[in-house]
Amino acid sequence: MSLPAACRLLRSTLRTQLVPVANLSSKPAKHVISGVDQAIAMTAFFVAILGPSGWVLSHLEDYKNKKD
User: Fold this and answer.
1) What is the DSSP letter of 20?
2) Does a structural domain hold residue 10?
3) Residue 24 burial by CB count (10 A; 0-12/13-18/19+): exposed, middle or buried?
4) DSSP 63
5) Chain-centre distance for alpha carbon 15
6) CA–CA separation, 44 vs 41, rounded Å?
7) Is residue 18 part of a domain?
8) How confident is the model at residue 2 (pLDDT cuts 50, 70, 90)?
9) How far apart are CA 43 and CA 51, in angstroms?
10) pLDDT value, residue 41
11) Which residues touch 3 (CB under 8 Å, ≥6 apart)?
12) Computed from CA positions of residues 22, 26, 30, 35, in that sequence, does the dihedral angle turn out positive or negative?
């Protein structure tokens, strides 16, 4: 009885060791970032990611009714 190709591929990927993508370290940070700096950075990320999608969703009816 032979396994399907997808099962064999999954088993081979589970057997091999994956190369870590990021270099993780348990050392303390070189530069201390304050809470205010972190809050500003997180706000900028959220606005950059959620802003355009929120714009599209809020104007979805305008896009549906637009006839060219």
Assistant:
1) P
2) no
3) exposed
4) H
5) 26
6) 5
7) no
8) low
9) 11
10) 96
11) 11
12) positive
57 within some domain: yes
Tens-digit pLDDT profile for residues 3-52: 688 777 777 776 665 566 666 677 887 888 999 999 999 999 999 999 99
Domain residues for the domain of 59 are: 41-68
- 54 pLDDT higher than 90: yes
Question: For the chain, what is the radius of gyration of the CA atoms?
Answer: 24
pLDDT at residue 45, as a whole number: 96
DSSP state of 21: S
C-alpha span between 33 and 38 (Å, rounded): 7
**Domain presence at residue 24:** no
Total domain count, the chain: 1
Instruction: Give the whole-angstrom CA distance, residue 68 versus residue 58.
Output: 20
Structure tokens at 53: 């999608």
